[in-house]
Structure formats: structure tokens, C-alpha cells
Amino acid sequence: MIEVSELTRRYGTLTAVDDLSFTVERGEVVGFLGPNGAGKTTTMRILSGYLPATRAKRLMVAGHDVLRDSMGVRRSIGYLPESVPLYPELRVDEMMRFQGKLHRMDRAELKGRIDTVLDRVGVLDRKKQLVGTLSRGLKQRVGLAVALLPNPDVLILDEPTSGLDPIQRGEVRRLISELSAEHTVLLSSHILAEIESMAPRVVIIHEGAKVADGDQASILTALGGGQGGHVAVEIASPLEASKISELMASLPGVSGVETGERLGIHQSFRVMGEGDLREDIGALAMTQSWALRELSWNRPTLEELFTRLVSGTLGTEHVAAAREAGAAPTAPAAAPAPAQSSGLSIEPVGQGGGSAKPLPLGTPGTAQPKTIYSLNPFDRGASRDLSKPVSVDAPAPVDLSPNSDGPEEDQEQRP
Amino acid sequence: MSLLKRNGRVGKLSRFGTGLQVMVTIVLAVALVLIVNWLAGRPGIRQRFDLTSADRNTLATATKGTLDRIEEPVLIEVLQRIERGPRQQIEFEVMQRTRMLLQLIQDEAGGKVEVKDVDTTDVVAWSLRQKEMRLPGFENGLLVSRGKQRTFLRIDGGLAQVQAGRRTEQGFIPPAIIAFTAEEAIVEAILDVTRGDELLAVFTQGHGEPNIEELDADAPEGIGLVAGALEKDGFVLQGWSQVEDGALPEGCDLLVVLAPDTQWPEAQFTQVLDFVERGGRMIIVPATDPSGLRRSDVPDLMKRFGLEVSEGRLATRLVDPRTGVPIEGRPECERIVASPTELSSHVMVRPIRDAGRVLGFEQAHPIRILEQPPEGLIQALVNVPGNRYWLDVPSGPEQLCNRIYEPGIDGQEQRYSIAATVQRPPMQDVEQASGLDDIREIRIVALGSAHSFTNAAMRTESLIPAAFNWVSDREHRITIPPKDPDLRMLPRDDPEAIVAVTNFAQLYLPGLAALLGLAVWFLRSRGSRRRPVAAEPQSTP
Amino acid sequence: MNGTLVVFQRELSGLFRAPFTWIVLLIVLVLNGLIFNGFLIGTGGNISDALDASMTGPLFWIWIVFLPALLAMRLVAEESRSGTLEYLLTAPVSDFAVVLGKFAAATAFLAILWTSSLLYAGATAVIGGNPDWPAVLGTWMGTIFVSALFVAIGMLASTFTATPLLAAFLSMVACIAWLAVPLLAGQVFSYLIPLIAKTEEARNAWATTVRDIASNMDAFGHFQRSFRLGLLDTAELVFFVTWTALFLFLTARSLEARRWRG
Asked: A93, A94, B276, B394: most buried, per Cβ within 10 A?
């Protein structure tokens, strides 16, 4: 249904989308994952015909060539931009009627269709309410209803859950899962938890380029998820820490042991290796009669991988070191364009490990902040919409230690 | 629209290239607009529809005709400066209307009339212009010119008729425009300056008339000055004698019979009569000498057109102020000075009368109107009263006027006329004889005094150029009805009316808008505020 | 065409659903009514003068500078900011249809404002006055053409920024600039011409050329010379229509360029 081949889009000297290729089959739900500025919105805008591509070998949406038959594409997609553009002075049903007229829908057909769609997204009772008075979550649903109205083959949803509280998010998530039965859905998010729960297949892009594509398990494997686990151990023992770690390292399957902090009589360790090593370590502790306070297996989640991916620290050592040190991961030298230190931030939320504050990533060369484009030289960046929703993401249980004390405080926090 | 997208696909064009392409597109689009505008302004394509009931924006047919006939370009300069004062508003309005009219004229003339604004801030150039036009100071108006010929049209009496502001018991009544006369004024001015299309004036020769080939411009008795003035006005003078030249020259526009004192051959008389009767133009002047007048064909010719010239000449009743004895037998007896009140309102003499100047004659034969023609009009131009003049009639056939008062011979008339015009339809319905083809009519100026043609007379006030212009129909060839300002007033008798209208404009209409606005606001907000909303969907996890 | 109509309907109804519009409407009606009444009473009941003052007087030109800017701000910059422009431009209607629909809605709104003068004329007719209807209608039509031109100019200017107030300001400056073209040309060239032309004749020729071009661009003059006088002149009509079309075209291009530049 969607075929993107070698798509490149530049804003001036800056490459927002770099040689991106992927396909989405009919009935698939594909999550588009990447940090802010990774090129998700740009790609979606190109697919919806809003932005022209700088270069593309092939761009097909619902059987229409985006470059040649933009009208055909527009007729057969439902596109919901992140800002959920709705006319605040219209009532919900008026907004729907307008959409219907734009899509040249039959008047009689439209009437029934509006109710069906509103019912489907669960805002039928708000039919007569002014859009401007709707809450953020309701607006999102109405936006979805507007996109769904012409019954498009393809739904392109840009950050459909952004700005929603967890409950609303859950509902939208459910709704999208239901929609996948009839529509091909391409949705984007910078929140992995959303993608994980909604889209069986994930395309991760970073700095405009695709870094991973596939279902979650295969991504995990492909990114070396099997290698990423570790067992956290806290032991009280009269032995020296180095001695303990030596003992643990001698266990079969253990590839490395890191010595952590000493808390009172307890010493923490991190044991890296293949698979679940808890039993082996437990047995060792028993034989050595160590007082074991903690023994837990931390498997890497997609979230973690993703975070490491975008921060350029896929190597386990870095992450572990960072964790232990409680400091921000240092910027890898491999980053491409050091000239631009954008202070990009990620919000790791959901079960994978959210933090009240975004993780500052000193990753240079990542994409610019998203702007509503403007020709005005004074307006660049400033046009970031104030009317856009403020993130209301609730702080989730922390798995990855917060790094808020890091030297690079988030400069580009989303409003 | 798809241009940029194609670029996107090809991907070879840089930002610069795209920018260039956009610029080219813009330039092309602007060029297209300019071309279309230029085309739309072409005279053949441009159409105007006058929506006003008073046809304020439509040129009179006569104007269009005149503009069609212009052959050489005419320049109209607009002199406009805001002059503070009670007339500021009016002058501005008149000039605006005039500008609009000029626009129409310019478009209608298709390039033959050029209109331009005079830079009134250029004081030096303007003062030169002012001196040249003999204007007392700055005045708003138009300067119509072609080469050296120019006419200035002022607002009052030219472009508009303005009623001066005046104080009454009710208070000051501001000046008001009574009518816009600019169209006529401009067209006449254009006619004035474009009369370069030469007219052939044929002078009869060989029977006592002054020789047109040998004119004297210096001696007081010569007629060189007249000839010069006529030539400047665009007349070509040519002599004609039937005996030598045969038929009247082709294209003769007007005939001048200037004081012949012997009889013409029969054929010449017939030709002259024929020319005039078919709608020709003639200036006829009797010989000064009564016997010569008697011998010539002038009395006969005049009689054919309802005029009678007396053999006697007018003399002034002069009295020696010291002795109280009437003065007789002296040349000054035959000097006649017609005061403005003695001039008629005929267009030939009206400028002199209106200016309050006098008109002098010498040795003038009175011309009497025998009868008015059934159609047309004979008008006396100068009427001098009988109580101030007497008729000096020669006592016998061979006698001359002796300037001696002879009560028995004095005419009984109350008034003597020295000049007259005849204007009537042609007597013979035949092909146009004259080159002045618009209006076929006979025009004759009969002037009692040949002396008026002399250099001496030309150095003072003279009728001759005016006579030539009138007889050749060059003055006031058109009449364009003035446009009234088209006043549309509320009925004055109903004071309630104005109150009703002002209330409507000031209260009801804004009030209605306010009410509608409130109604819309109320209706819009009602639906979402009051309607009970079913269970909050968010409440379910 | 269908798209234009749909957008037009929505924009116009959207305008009339906003309190902003009604406030503008009220202010315009009150001030125009004042002018009309002032002239009606001042001239002792001269209907033509009063109508002329309310339809084509200085106030009209002030509105012509302000209102298109405000409308364009609402229709382009605010939508661009709130994202609804993105919605419209990804809807299955062409960009030009969107521009045209918005333009038509703004022009229609102004046309409704100017209709107030027709209502005044109607009121005078009801109580026995006799307005020169064809001329009044012609002038009214002219005011709509002028409005259309300035709406197009304002829309073009407001596509250059997504900040509404800046857009309104730019539009206003553009409208004023367009009105001041003849004046500006005269001023600028009075300094420039002596640099180009050495002889007096050449200077005069240049001055004439500049004046001709400037007077050709002079919307005020074009209106004063035709519609205001009750004269329907095809050349003036073409002037307004073609320049309006050009600015609409450029507006569509400019919207497109914004996408291109991102």
C-alpha cells in the first residue's frame, strides 16, 4: 500500500530524510519510531503530498504516485497531522461535513457515515459540540474521525498519542488496533511504548535514515538484544569486591562483571552474559554463603535498544558505565555532523523506562527542531506552535536511571 | 503547481535553480499582466459604458466628430494647484471633472491629443508661462496648444459656470457649480488651435480692388497687415479676375469683394452670385467713393441678400467746444467711434463689447437691413444712434461726399448700422461649393468701411480677423450642451426624511449587525455549553 | 471548482462565526454611517455626495489598507500556525482552489461591508430621494474590485510568515506600498533620474516614462477615473482583474515555495 524507495528530503543544507526506503503491505500497521527530528513528520508530510520530496526513486501510496498523482493520493489517504488541525469555530459534525465535501462525498451517504465514524471513535455524543471546546483527547479522536470519514485505504497518523494522558492514550491505542482490520496504518511516535503496543512492525529511523525495520522480536535480535541483558547482584560478603567479581566471572556463560557501588556492607555488581544467569549466581552465592540482597535479570527492551541506538551507544559497556556513574552518556566520536549540537531530547516513557525529565542526549548532528515551515527569516524556529499540546505524559516507573543531573540540560524541550 | 514537484522528482535542480525558475515564472506572469493591460487600453479594444443617468462620462457627438478631424497633435497642459480659499473645493471638483473629460478626449482622439500636467512647483517655468499667456497670477485651468497657437481656458466661464459665493441674511452661501462647460470650451480651444487647415480666400481683382499681389504693410492706407494676420490664421489669399483667370478657383472657401469701383463683367457677377447662393461665404465692402460704389456691383449684390448700402457716408455731429459752431468739412467728421453699448451681441463683436472697448471706423457707408430672410438671420453688428451721426449724401450723381451737413438729404433713420451679417440656408440646392462642409449655409459679412482693412485700422481694434473667422465658420463651430452637476437631493420639505435616513445609517444598521452578531454568538455557544454530554469517555480506562 | 466552492463556503461561514468579524462589521458600519450622515447633512441632503463619501472617501481607502490585512492574517497566517492550512493543503483539492476559496471569502466579506452604502441609497430612495442607481451600483462594483485586488495583495504578503501579527503588518505594508506606488516612484526617481540622464530632454523623457508606469500601477487612480465616476471601463476592469489574478497566482506559488523550502 505504501512504497517508499530512496526518499531524500533536504531543508537547505540539512538532510531531514536520507535515502529512506520501506514498504507497507495492505492491512499492516507500521509504527514509525524515532526521536524528535528524526524525519518522521517530514516523511509523512511527503507521503500525504504536503511536502515535495527532494529526491525519490519511487513513492507510491495506495496505488498512486505521490509525485505525479498527488490528488489521487490525497483522495485515498486519511492524514492526521500531529497538531490535529481542526477549525475551533466549527461544531464536530460541521467539521465532518466539511471534510466530506472536500472529499466530494455524497450528501446522503455523508449523513450516515458521520454518525458511524463518530460512534466508532466514541464521540458521537459530542456531535454538536464546538471543536474549540473539546479536550485534547477528544480533539484527537475527532481528528481521527475526520481522517477516517472518507474511508481511506491508508491512514497516516502523525503522533496520534502525543499530548494525551495515559488513559486517553490507551483508548486511542485500542482504536488504532481496531482500525488495522480495515485500513493500512502508518503511525509515528517518538514513544516506544506506543509503538510496541499498537504496531506489530516497527520502522526505526534516526537522523533521517532507517536503522531498523521488522517486528519487535526481530529488531531485538537484530540489534543484539540477546547480548544486552545483565543480572544485577547485591551481595554482602567479607570478601574483596574484586574477588567476588572474579568468582562470578568464572561462571560459565558470564562474559563480564562490573563492580558497582558499595552501599554499607553491600556491594553491587552487574553480570553480563548469555541468557538468564540468576540461577548460576544464586548457586554461587549459596556455596560462598554470601548474603544476597538482590538478584534480578534485566533483559534489554526495545526501548532501551532504541535509546541506545539514537544516543549512538549501542555498546553495552557505555550504557552500563553511564548507569553506574549516574551520569549522562558521553557523546560518541562517531557522530556525523558535529557542527550542530542540537541538544535533542528523548522522552523515554511507558513500561520500558520513563523518566520525569527527558534524557539529555548530547548527540550532535541529529535533526533540527521541528518547525512549521516559514519563509520569514525571523520566524525560523519561533513558529513552533504554541497552540500545540503540552506533553502531559505521566511519569512512569523508572527503569533506566534518570540522568537529569547531567551537564547538558535539555535545551530543546518540547513545549 | 506541479513544477516544483517535478523538480523534486528529478532532484537535479539546486535551490538556486528552483529560485531562478520561480523568478522567471514571476517575471513572465508580470509581463503577461502588463501586456494584457496594455492591450486592454488600446482604443479599439477599450470600451466604456457610462452608468450615470446624466451621461456625465460620455462625450458629445460633436466632440467626437471634432476629435476625429484633428490632423495634427494638440497638447493640453493641465495647470492645477490647490488654492486655499472658499473656491478650493469647487476648483478641485471642476478640475477633477475636467481631468476625467480629458481622459475621455485623450482616449477618443487616439494619440492626437496629449494631456500632461504642468509642474506647478517649478516657479520659474510657471512665471514665464504666465507672462506668455498674459495671466495676472496663478490660475487653475487648461492650456491648449498646437505649435505656437495656444489658448488658455480658465475655470470661470471656461471649464464651468460658477456662481460666486455670497453673503445673505441666512449666512454665507458658498460658491457653487452651476454647470460644467469644459467639453465645449476644450473642443473650441482645440478648434481654435487646429485651424491650420488652410482656407482659400479669393479676393476679386482688377476693378478698383487693392492688388493682392502688391500689399503694403507700412503705409497707413496699405492692407498688408490684414493679409499678414489672415495668413497667420491659416488663410491663403489669392486674387481672381474672371477676365484673366476664368472660373472661380477650385476650392475657394470664401470670397472677398473689397471695394470695387467699376462694374464687373456680367460673367463675373453671375459666378460670384452663384457661389454665394449655393452656400458660399463672402465678405463684401463697398468702395469709399460714392460714385465708385454706384458703378460697382456691390449694391446689387447686397440687395440680393437683403441688405442695402447707402451711397452716403456717416459723419459725426461735432461741435467746436469753444464757439459752439458745428464742425464740418474736416476729415475727423468721418471718424466714428462705436462705444460698447453700440455693439451687438453677435459673436464677432461680443469680445470687444464684453471687454468694454470701442471700435473705430472711418468713412463708413451705413448698411440697412431691407428684410429678414424667411430662414436664417440678418444681424446688424454696429448700431450708431442717429442723434450723434448724420448721413453725408452727395448731392448729385457726380458729386463726392463733402462732409457738409445738408439737412434736406439727411436720412430719417434713428440708428445707422455700419456692419451686418447674413446667415441663411443656401438658395440653390446644389453640390457643396464651399470647403466648409458641415453646415451648408450662406454667410456674408457686409462692412460699411473699406478703411477697416487698412494698416491704420489694424493697429487698433479691428473687426477683420473676427469677420474672416466667423464667415468661414471657424468660431463656435460646435455647441455642446453644458453638463449640469446632476444634483440629487433629499426632499427638502420633509425634515423627518433626513432624520429617518440618518437614523437608519447610524443606528439601525449597526444595531442590526450587533444583534446578528450576538445572535450568532449565542446560537454558536449554546449547542456546546448547554447540551448535556453523555458519560465522559475518558473515565473508562 | 468544487473545491473552491467548498473552501469558500467554509471560510465565509467561518468568518461570520468569529466575533472578530462582527466587531469589524460593527465598527465599519458605525464609521461609514457617520461619514454618510455627515455629508448628507453637510451638503443639505445631497445624496450623490453622501454616497460618494461613504463609498469612495478616504475612509474607504483606510479600510482597504486595514481590512484585507486582517482578513489575510486570519485566512492564511493563523491557519498556517494552527495547522489547518496543512489540513487544507493535504485535502483532495488543489492549492489554487484553496487560495481562490479563501480569497473569494475575504472579498465577499468586504463586498458585504460595502453593501451598506447600497442600503443607505435604498433608504434615501424609500423616503423620496432619487439616487443615481446605475452609477451607484457601478461604484459599488468598483469597490469590490478594489477590495479583491487588495485582498490578493494582503494574502500574498501574509504567506511570507506564519506569525499572524507579523503577517497582518506585512499585508498592511504591502497594501500601503501598492497605493503609494505613484508617489514613491516620483520620489525615488526624482533622485535617480539625474544620475541616469544628463540632458534636460532625457530627464524629462525619463520622468514621463516613470510617471506613465506609475500611473499605470496606481489602483487609486484607476478606481477614481472609472468606477467612482460611474463609468464602466473595460481597461480599468482588466487592470483590476489581471493584477488580482497575478497576486493570487503568486500567493499559490508562495504557499508552494514554503513547502519547498520547508
From this structure: B276
